[in-house]
Amino acid sequence: MALTASLSAVTAADGTFSVAGATAWNALTGLPVTLSGIASPAQGGTGIAYFTAAGPSVARVYTFPDAAATILYSGGPLGTPSSGTLTSATGLPEGGLSLTDLTTNDFSTARHGFVPKGTNVGSFLKDDGTWAAPTAASTLNGITAATGAVTIASGNNTGIVWNWANTTDATACHTLGETSPATNGTLTAGIPNQVLLKLTTLAGSTMSPLSVYALGVPVFSVNPSASLPQILGANGQSLGPMYSFAGATTTGMYRAGASLVFTTAATDRLTLGTTAVFSVAIRGIAGSGTVPAVADPTNATGIFWPSATTVGIANSTFGELARFTGGTNTALFGLSAMLFANLGTPADGNMCYCSDCDAPTLVDSTCTSVGTKTGSFAARVNNLWKCFS
Question: What residues contact residue 26 under an 8 Å CB cut-off, 6+ apart?
Fold first, then answer.
């Protein structure tokens, strides 16, 4: 049967509908076609009933990939698709980052980036983006000079110890000094205001600011509990007095019990005890008539001990001047012998024994030495020497 009606009049067909002859459907133009239902992609449709294009008011061109893909949309996850370039994005959540063990985006000297994964072995992060173990550059050798006042508050972190194993002579393990002499230093009440080293504690502190040990034994320390400043030293002994001198290590001062002892050449010379305000104990040197054991500053006149019960007065030029002897029921006073030529002209009131004076003939005979010269006591009276016996 031949189809003579126009396509617009064709409403339905049962079976197969075709156009015979050389004219095919694709050669037909200008024929109005009315479709009902959903147009398939082959008919220029989407195959989806719920798809609407809105927005453009004039012809626009939207380019889609020539492959199956999922389109990003408002409110959708940025993780789909899994690749692509993200630009001008804001509000990226921390949970959206994938921090896997990759080094691609770690920072370096050429760019910013992520911190490299830690080593957990005590290394430090260098400015070139790598981890490294601490070396000498991180020790005292790496400390540079301060450019201003520095305060370090260590709190209760005690136990900082510096130890050396020195085997080289003429070396100092730690030195505090100057690069140039200090200037403008002053004193306040005798206390210097400019010091190289100051060790200080606060009022009420129980900690000593300084304690010095030698060979594991305490030498001296500062008492932290005293109400007044106090230096506490070791006791010492004759062979090694606590306070001594570099040129004479057996000369100085030490403590023996409750007494303070001064020693020279490892021999005790002066002892200050508790039984008197001031007491002297002379030990080891008895002295002589011309070398007093205890003398004046010029070592000319002083006292000596001729025996255990006798003390004498001596002069380095004139010899023994007098002596006092004591014992059981005994108390003697003796004057030393002087020659007539050595009597001199002392002040009135002086008295001596003139060993070569003549025996007096009168009660107040003026002393002479021209006769028997048997000796006599002599006393200085009215500017004259008077002999008596």
Answer: none
DSSP state of 108: -
Contact 8, 32 (CB under 8 A): yes
Query: Could you tell me the pTM of the whole model?
Result: 0.44
CA 203 and chain centroid, separation: 20
Average pLDDT, the chain: 80
Two tokens, residue 308: 């255990």
Q: Where are the beta strands (DSSP E) in 179-280?
A: 187-188, 191-192, 211-214, 217-222, 231-233, 243-245, 248-256, 259-264, 267-272
Residues 311 and 353 grouped into a single domain:
no
For the chain, how many structural domains are there in total?
Answer: 2
Check whether residue 295 and residue 309 sit in a common domain: yes
End of a domain among 335, 357, 377? 335
| 229-239: burial string, b at 16+ Cβ within 10 Å, e else | eeeeebebbbe
- Same domain? 321 vs 350: no
Domain presence at residue 275: no
Asked whether residue 109 is domain-assigned, the answer is no
Give per-residue pLDDT as tens, 238-293.
999 999 999 999 999 999 888 888 899 998 888 887 775 555 555 557 888 888 88
Q: What is the DSSP letter of 114?
A: B
Q: Print the domain residue range for 314.
A: 285-335
Cα 190 to Cα 98, 186, 187, 223, 226, distances in angstroms: 70, 9, 5, 21, 22
191 within some domain? no
* CB contact at 8 A, 222 and 232: yes
